[in-house]
Amino acid sequence: MSKTALRPTLERSSSGQGAPGTLQDKTQRYPYETIADNEREHFWFIARNERISRLMKSEVPNWRKASFLEIGAGTGNVLGHLWDEGFTDLSGWEIVEDGIAICQKRYPNIKFSNTNFLTQKRLDQKFDSVGMFDCLEHFSDDQLPLMRVRQLLKPGGKIVLTVPAHMFLWTVMDEIFGHYRRYNKSELTRSLEEAGFTDIKSVYFMAPLVPIAIVHRGKLRVPKDATEEQIEAIMRRETSIPLRPINTAMLAISRLEHSIMGMRDLSFGGSLLAVATSPD
User: Fold this and answer.
1) Nearest Cα to Cα of residue 203 among 24, 55, 46
2) Which element (helix H / strand E) includes 111?
3) What is the pLDDT of residues 227-270, one digit of tens each?
4) Domains, the chain
5) φ and ψ of 277, to 5 deg
6) Residues paired with residue 130 on neighbouring β-strands, in sequence order
7) 3-class secondary structure, 10
8) pLDDT category, 30, cuts 50, 70, 90?
9) Looking at residue 243, what DSSP letter applies?
10) Taking a C-beta distance cutoff of 8 angstroms, is the pair 60, 131 a contact?
11) To bridge 209 with a disulfide, which of 3, 221, 259, 270 should be the other Cys (CB 3.0-4.6 Å)?
12) What number of CA atoms fall less than 13 Å from residue 2's CA on the CB side?
């Protein structure tokens, strides 16, 4: 695992982004090796992948052969799930070499590259759809990445996103993971509209997790001078697979939520899923 990705650089936010007056981690942390080992079995990743793939199948024309790019591919778990579901033209861009190495080893049929799409001078390649899954919240200004995504999409192409929901759920874990914000529906819709996207559809999901998250993460305390070892231990604990009965039960509950609610919601949830169209 890259030590750089775990260096505790917690500092007071002076940018006005994220939770006002709280610690803000200016670098994105992601425990690639730990996540890669757990995400195939962890209920949260499984349920999120199922939500993403079903939405894409309903929203992306000719989805089996449609070209799809994931920005911030992480360890390739979402793309691996899409491949298993029958998607065939898949690409992933990731800026951290640790993630790319895992992606290329686990999913040789998918095209991965170490690419920072914000610094590319030209974005000549066009895709039928582009995904950003728990990625947009890591940008201090979300308009720049959204506008760059539009440049990557064919006319009528789709952007598909997941983001953490509701600032009332903000905790120190958001700071550790390098988040600048959590979104509600109106905020995400406004950001997409300002970037020029239309036909926006969104839904909260993981609603059953909200009470648990409030109780569990509300108790978490991290000192401002936390060492790298302390940060790493917290991240490993927070991304570990729950006990098997709990993991199985939470997966069943998450699937039941999707089965019953579909693209409707209870006006809250731990995460927010959205799809929108680029008219250009």
Assistant:
1) 55
2) strand 111-113
3) 888 888 888 888 899 999 999 999 999 999 999 999 999 999 99
4) 4-277 (3.40.50.150)
5) -115, 140
6) 69, 159
7) strand
8) low
9) P
10) no
11) 270
12) 15
